[in-house]
Every structure is written in C-alpha cells, then in structure tokens.
Write a structure and sequence with these properties.
The complex is a heterodimer of chains A (381) and B (264).
Chain A: H1 11-38, H2 43-52, H3 70-83, H4 85-104, H5 107-118, E1 123-126, E2 142-146, E3 149-160, E4 167-173, E5 183-189, E6 195-200, E7 211-222, E8 226-227, H6 233-269, E9 271-272, E10 275-276, H7 281-309, H8 315-340, H9 342-345, H10 351-363, H11 368-380
Parallel strand pairs in A: 1-4
Antiparallel strand pairs in A: 2-3, 3-7, 4-5, 5-8, 6-7, 9-10
Chain B: E1 2-7, E2 9-11, E3 32-34, H1 36-52, E4 55-61, H2 67-76, E5 80-84, H3 94-108, E6 116-120, H4 131-139, E7 143-153, E8 156-163, E9 166-173, E10 176-180, H5 192-200, E11 205-206, H6 247-260
Parallel strand pairs in B: 1-4, 1-6, 4-5, 5-11, 6-10, 7-10
Antiparallel strand pairs in B: 2-3, 7-8, 8-9
Classes of the chains: A alpha+beta (381), B alpha/beta (264).
C-alpha cells in the first residue's frame, strides 16, 4: 500500500519501523475490528507485544529495557497506532509509566518498574479524577502519613490499563486546599489491599484499550514508594506529561496514516465518470492536503522528540506537536471517510472506527485547549 | 542439534515482471524479502532448537545486499549467518547453485557437521524447487521434501510431508536434508532486542577463494539450464451452458460432452 515514505532514518530506525509495521499488518489490523466491536481486551495481542519487548522500549538498559530514544519511540508509536490506536495506547501507558520514575525516581523505584515490565506487567498513570481533568491540581484523592507508610483514599477516572496494570503511579493530595502544592506521587503495586479497579468505560473509540476507574480505599503504601519529595507531585505530573506529548502526536499521526493510505488506495481504484476518483482534482487535492498535513505533523513530532533526546525541554514545541498532530489526525481521517464515501461510513469497512479513534487524541494527555494554554503561557511570558 | 537453514533473498512480489529481451527477472524497484518458504524452514529449525537445543546457522548465496535477508533471519532467531558471495557465482542455475552451496556446507562443517539442513521448498521467484534436492544429492544425504512439521528425536527427525495424495508421516535418519513448504504456523516475530542486534551485526562472507571448488561447475559456465522464454500462459475459458428438462438429462449431456473431449 502506498505510504508517505520516511527519509533520513538510521538503519536501526528503518528496521524497527518495518518490524512493527509487519506486526501491525499481520497481527493487529486483522483482529482490531472484532475487538473494537466487542470491546474485549486483546490479551493475546498484548502478550505478543510484551514478548517482542514493546512495553520496555523506554526502560533504561541497566534495568533490562531497550532504552531507545524518543525519536525512535515516536516512529514505533506511529506504526503501532497505524495498527490500532487503542492498542498503541495500552503500550504507550508503559512509556508514560516509566517517565515519572525516570525523571524523579530513585534506583530502587526504577527497579520496581523494571520488575513489573520485565515480568510482562503493564503500567498505569493515575492522575485524572471525575472532577479533576484539565484542572488536575484540584484532585481529591488524599494521602496521610502513618509511620513508615502513606495511606491513600480516593477514586481515579479514565485511567488507561486500570484493571490490567501491575504497577500504578498515583497522584494524591495531603490537603485539597493546598492546591498544586499539596500533591505527591506514589508507586502503588497491584494487589495492595484496598486497591481495586472500578467501573470500566464503554468508550466511543480506542476500544482495544482498557480504561476505567482505580479505587483506593485505605491503601497502605510504604514510604519508599513516594516519588521525589512530598509536595512535588504536581511538578512530576506536569513534567511527565510534557515529555510524553510529542509521542502522543505520533500516535495520532499513525491512526491518520492508516486512513490516508486506505483513502489513497481507494482513490486509485474507484472509478467515476470514466477515471479513478483520485484523478478528479476535487479528490486529488484532498489527498494532497492530507499528505501535506501528515508530513508537517510528523516533522513537528520528530523535531520535538529530537529536542527531548538532546535534553532541551521546550513545552511550547512539545504541546504544538501534540495539538497539531491530533488536529491533523481528526481532519485527515474525516477527509478519508469523505473520499471513501458510503464505504467510509459503513461498519463493514475500517474507516468509521478510525474516525471514532481519532477524536481521543484531541482530548487525552492534555486537551488541545490545555495545549494552547501552555503555548500561549510560554510565548506571552 | 546443529542445524543449517539455506535461504534466498527474493523480490517481494507475486507479480514478478520479466525483461522481454533477456528473459530474466526485473529486480529494480522491487523490495527484497527472505523467500517465504525459507522463512518457514527457519521457523521449523528454531522450533527444533527450542525443543532439543542446538544452533541454527543461516546461509545465503547472493550479492552483498542479501545480507539484509540474513539480518532478518538473525532478528527472527538464527544464531549465526553466512553470506556466500562472489562474482564468479553470478548466473548460476540450480545445478551450479546447489554445487556451490554444497561446497560451502563442507567448509562450514570443518567446524562442526550439520545434523540437519533445512531449505524452503522452492523460491518464489524461480519456482524450480530444485536447489534443496540437488544440494542433498551433492552432499550424498537423504532428503525429504515438502514437509510441514518436523521434530527431532536423537538421531532421527520425524515429520509430516505434504503430497498430492494427502500427508505422509515420515521418519529419516540424520544427517539429512529437509525442504519445508507452507507450515500451519507463521515465522515468529523478532523482539526489539534481537532486531536491533541483527541490524548492528557484521555478516561474514564466504567467497570462491575460501572453497574447494571446480570453477567449471560455477556461474554461467557451470549452468546447463538455458532459459529460452518465460511467459504467463494465456487462459482461454470456453464455457458451454447445458440445459435440459431434468437433472438426469443434463447429466447425460455432460457425459457426452466430456466423452467428446476425451475427458471421460
């Protein structure tokens, strides 16, 4: 299938891209439709991904991980999401899980993460609550110090891998009236008494991923599981999300790439008025615009990831990559459905699912409105 | 068990284009892959290794770019890879290729003899299915072709062989050569780690100078096969509709027609 070929990749990046694309084409895409319709969690696919090492991509080498850089991770993420957006979110939660520990954790804590991932476990990032989404500093989950441990109480919402993770990063506050300053971050292991999965979300899209509530009832966490220092939690959350944003953009591009490739192929084959519809300028130009936007979004993600790999933190650029990538995804998939027409709208064919999947990228990991808060805040400062 | 898998790099297309002048394959612009049957052979070898231990070595005859195919095999799980390459080998037909391969096998066996040599049933570009059997003949080893399952047990291999009549359950003493057809399972996926290691791997080459060879049996000179013409046979479908008042009358008409055409 014709795709937007990538240039200037290293041999390793090319080989990883080809490998994950083959995995997507042979394993993910053929099964995604059924899982999407049933909403069932794709255990077998996740097992394969774990065996391949896809959940350990960003884990440092000395902990048994693959330690690939963010630029390469973005390539892998794009290919996974081209396979299925929801599936890539499941895998992406491990990248999101490693990040705060990498940024603020100690050796012992990183070993906990490594033990989880190396034994085939998944991770979950527990920040969002029913009344604390974009305004995450207003979260209500509490913690109190009790001797050598902390006791956590509250409910997290919309948590990826809520009922399948082995290790959770949970954000809680000492006192909600303290706002951002009262928040701390904790590593919580699955099986800790009082920790359970609550209601599972029946979502519009990314239905191959498990999303739901994480309920904490007097969950006792050893003091050594506190990430960084008390009161650093909000900073940890913001720094983590800041650094995972570029690759969220990569996932959006992957989902859109599938739709673009599908529409392009269709436009070459489907004939109206004596020629393939792609040869009609109205459709040909739509495809050209899709290609332009995908190329631009991909370059933005690549640039943001390169900045990260160079240790240069520019929230404005990271947020741009996420917001632009997801806006492009929405538009490209919508246009792909338009080109494919009735078949794009039918459940029998894959594009309507892609459209449902596309929307989440504008919402999660910081809504695109929040991205603009970050960008305007930085440029107006 | 010491296993050798012979692989070929082929163009990734089922619609191979042929140069009408030279009657050879047009390879330009076509991405290359490991011949799919060789991929199944590799997976069969890896499963035997998983079960009884041992080493899986891959050997590929081809130009420098065939190293990519060998790296794919390393990523999937092969332990060692060798490229068999020399300008003197260019233009080899199946007889010359199998002869050169047999000499390379002898060379590699100076280290340790192979208990089992696996080949794909045939390559999807040439479709001859001759190199595996010819290699067995050059080496003077027993051969089993078109296997879909194979296990090792001491000095024998046992497996299931596909034939026109159904399946043959076979047992063969080792050392032996087995060719593999499409298995019920797919070759495994590489891991991120094995893929990256394979990308970085240096693939050693074996050239004519490394081998005890009679050059008269290599390359164009050693190739009795001359391709006169390659073409897709045209398919003419002549359909005749039979109609009658009853099924038995139609059957009678059909029988007449078949007899007329000497089919029945």
């Amino acid at each position: 299938m014709a795709t937007l070929e990538r240039y200037l990749l290293t041999d390793e990046q090319k080989d990883l891209q080809a490998m994950v694309r083959e995995f997507a084409d042979k394993e993910i895409i053929p099964r995604a439709k059924e899982y999407d319709l049933s909403g069932e969690y794709p255990k077998d696919l996740v097992k394969q991904a774990v065996d391949m090492g896809l959940t350990r991509l960003s884990l440092p080498k000395k902990y048994g991980g693959e330690a690939i850089d963010n630029q390469t991770y973005a390539i892998v993420k794009e290919e996974l999401a081209r396979g299925d957006a929801g599936f890539s979110v499941t895998i992406g939660a491990c990248y999101l899980g490693v990040m705060p520990v990498k940024l603020f954790g100690n050796d012992k804590q990183m070993q906990k993460v490594a033990d989880c991932l190396n034994s085939g476990g998944l991770m979950a990032f527990g920040l969002t609550e029913a009344a604390a989404g974009s305004d995450s500093a207003s979260l209500k989950t509490t913690y109190v110090k009790d001797g050598d441990s902390y006791i956590l109480n509250g409910t997290k919402t919309f948590i990826t891998n809520a009922s399948v993770a082995s290790l959770y990063t949970i954000f809680a506050t000492k006192d909600p009236s303290l706002g951002a300053k009262g928040i701390s971050a904790f590593i919580v292991e699955a099986g800790t008494p009082g920790l359970s999965a609550g209601k599972e979300e029946d979502k519009m899209g990314i239905r191959l991923s498990n999303t739901g509530e994480v309920v904490l009832q007097d969950v006792r966490v050893p003091a050594e599981n506190l990430l960084g220092e008390e009161g650093q939690g909000f900073k940890i959350a913001m720094n983590t999300l800041n650094q995972t944003r570029p690759t969220s953009g990569a996932g959006a591009i992957g989902n859109a790439m599938f739709a673009y490739e599908y529409a392009l192929q269709y436009a070459k084959e489907r004939k109206t008025f004596g020629k393939p519809i792609g040869k009609h300028q109205a459709v040909g130009f739509m495809l050209a615009d899709m290609a332009i936007q995908l190329e631009a979004a991909r370059q933005m993600v690549n640039y943001a990831a390169r900045l990260m790999d160079s240790g240069i933190v520019v929230p404005r650029v990271f947020s741009s990559a996420k917001a632009f990538g997801s806006d492009v995804c929405m538009k490209v998939v919508l246009d792909a459905v338009q080109i494919v027409g009735g078949y794009g709208y039918s459940r029998e064919y894959p594009l309507e699912k892609r459209l449902r999947d596309a929307k989440i990228y504008q919402i999660f990991e910081g809504t695109n409105q929040i991205q603009r808060v970050i960008i305007s805040g930085q440029i107006l400062a | 068990m010491n296993i050798l898998v012979c692989v070929k790099q082929v163009p990734d297309t089922t619609e191979i284009k042929i140069d009408p002048v030279t009657n050879t394959l047009i390879r330009a612009g076509v991405p290359s892959i490991v011949n799919p049957y060789d991929g199944y052979a590799l997976e069969v070898g890896l499963r035997i290794k998983d079960a009884v231990g041992g080493t899986v070595t891959v050997l590929c005859m081809g130009p420098e770019q065939a190293k990519e195919a060998l790296k794919t095999c390393l990523a999937i799980g092969a332990d060692k890879a060798w490229l068999l390459t020399d300008r003197l080998f260019g233009g080899s037909d199946t007889l010359a290729t199998s002869y050169i391969l047999s000499r390379a096998v002898k060379k590699l066996e100076e280290e340790a003899p192979f208990d089992l040599i696996l080949c794909g049933k045939q390559a999807i570009d040439g479709d001859t299915a001759q190199v595996g059997p010819e290699l067995a003949e050059h080496l003077g080893r027993p051969q089993v072709t078109c296997v879909i399952e194979l296990t090792a047990d001491g000095d024998v291999v046992r497996g299931k062989r596909e034939s026109d009549m159904g399946y043959d359950i076979i047992e063969c003493a080792t050392p032996a050569l087995v060719t593999v057809t499409k298995t019920p399972f797919e070759p495994r996926f590489p891991t991120i780690r094995s893929r990256l290691a394979a990308t970085r791997a240096e693939i050693p080459s074996i050239t004519a100078a490394d081998l005890d060879l009679d050059l008269a049996h290599c390359g164009l000179k050693g190739s009795p096969t001359k391709v006169k013409k390659t073409f897709t046979p045209s398919r003419n479908k002549n359909v005749q509709m039979l109609q009658a008042d009853s099924p038995s009358a139609v059957a009678a008409q059909l029988l007449d027609a078949l007899r007329r055409d000497n089919v029945a």
